[in-house]
Design goal:
By secondary structure, the protein is of the alpha/beta class. It is built from 15 helices and 16 strands. The chain has two domains: 211 residues, no CATH class; 189 residues, Rossmann fold. The strands form two sheets. Strands 6-5-4-1-2-3-7-8 form an eight-stranded mixed beta sheet, with helices on both faces. Strands 14-13-12-9-10-11-15-16 form an eight-stranded mixed beta sheet. β15 and β16 form a beta hairpin. The structure holds zinc ion (ZN). Zinc ion binds next to α8.
Length: 414
């Protein structure tokens, strides 16, 4: 993909795992930067490039270190088990200091399985241009939004640029000891000291990548931009039914009350999907009378993709809008949802009848257990109804929609 105008001259930061993607034997290390820059230039990117090379530098020859350093590639020494941790932490820190438009590039075989979960969630909040390079092509594609993915060797050998350029800004850094310098001699001396060896063995740094988005709170208060945004609810009644004895007309007010508690007061549209052959007419009428669009689907229908697509079409990328899925099968639609969250100004709410065993890669702004969402607000909803004299809601849609493999139609509820 060629660079857009806003990205053409924006900053480019490169994090390179030298163990996964080593310099091939006989390759001039001074050409690594030029090759990376050359590949970017071919795509129309000419912004300033910073490259940081990570690895156990006690194993890297002085000739390679000198070649990298003299061309402005910063070199970081890490214990082999800590490389991913430091790369990821540096990426997160860099993102904090460099708001978009900017470009990130990761040269590593660890994107799938190590970096992708957190990066995917980060992309749903802030989208940077992302480039990848690897020695081993991942077996299955990633959900990450990438501008280009390169084979590492191809990248090194394909670029036309063979110009050695001396760049002075590079740094040498030892993460084990928090030691930095700009002299290769001093750096190599440091790596051979007893103090350094002791630091690595006595005081090892963290090994595991810390997923920063894991601690991002659920159910945070609405930002001003989203406080009055439209909320579209897709409700799978087969996995999240109306609990026995619960009044169907209270479903909508309960949801709205839960949204308001977090500061969301925008207009709410609700579509309820189920095989309604088995839904009592009274329930259908009750839902319909509170403005819930009731959609009849074939049993086990879980795919919302056509409705997601139609809704997205009505809500352009810059429109702040909220999607909510009530279902125990959100994973059925997770690929479509993640793409919408990466590329648009949307937020996501989820509700489910039981909490998933592991945190999803979908970044949510609020999550509820279905029954507690309904129960928690029941009293409030009843109270507000009696306070307002039990006046019926003014919203009436009175529609039923049918989705079956060969038939789609809309009619009025009799
Ligand atoms: Zn050290």
């Amino acid at each position: 993909m060629q660079a857009t105008a806003e990205h053409a001259t924006a900053k480019i930061a490169v994090w390179w795992d030298m163990k996964d993607c080593p310099i091939p034997e006989g390759y001039d290390p001074a050409l690594v930067r030029q090759s990376i820059e050359g590949a970017f230039k071919e795509k129309g990117y000419s912004g300033p490039v910073s490259v940081t090379a990570y690895g156990d530098q006690t194993q890297t020859s002085g000739h390679i270190l000198q070649g990298l350093l003299s061309t402005g590639v910063s070199v970081v020494h890490t214990r082999p088990e800590s490389t991913n941790y430091h790369m990821h932490r540096d990426m997160v820190e860099w993102r904090g200091q460099n708001p978009p438009p900017a470009t990130m590039m990761i040269i590593s075989d660890k994107v799938p399985g190590v970096f992708d979960w957190d990066l995917l969630r980060l992309q749903q909040r802030t989208l940077y241009n992302l480039f990848l390079a690897y020695s081993v092509k991942p077996l299955c594609g990633t959900l990450l939004c990438t501008s280009e993915e390169w084979c590492w060797r191809y990248l090194l050998f394909s670029s036309l640029s063979r110009r050695r350029e001396v760049v002075q800004c590079a740094k040498l850094y030892c993460y084990s000891c928090d030691f930095d310098c700009q002299s290769l001699k001093k750096f190599q001396k440091h790596l051979s000291t007893y103090k350094h060896a002791r630091e690595e063995h006595v005081n090892p740094t963290h090994d595991e990548v810390v997923c920063v988005t894991e601690s991002w709170g659920r159910n945070y208060k609405a930002t001003p931009e989203f406080a009055t945004a439209k909320i579209q609810v897709w409700w799978d009644m087969s996995t999240c039914p109306i609990p026995e004895g619960y009044d169907a007309p209270l479903v909508r007010p309960s949801m709205e009350a839960a949204f308001k508690e977090l500061g969301y007061s925008g207009p709410v549209s609700i579509t309820a999907y189920d095989d309604h052959n088995h839904t009592p007419l009274q329930t259908l009428q009750a839902l319909s009378s509170t403005g819930v669009l009731v959609v009849h689907v074939i049993p086990d229908f879980k795919d919302l993709s056509s409705d997601l697509h139609a809704w997205h079409y009505a809500n352009p990328p810059q429109t702040a809008a909220i999607m909510m899925v009530i279902s125990d099968h959100v994973d059925w639609n997770s690929h479509g949802l993640v793409r919408l969250l990466q590329e648009n100004n949307y937020n996501l709410f989820l509700a489910y009848s039981f909490r998933p065993s592991k945190m999803s890669f979908l970044l949510t702004s609020a999550e509820w257990l279905w029954e507690s969402l309904l129960a928690g607000s029941e009293k409030r909803a009843l109270r507000s109804e009696s306070e307002s004299g039990g006046a019926p809601t003014s919203r009436r849609i009175d529609f039923l929609r049918f989705i079956t493999p060969n038939f789609s139609s809309t009619c009025e509820l009799e």
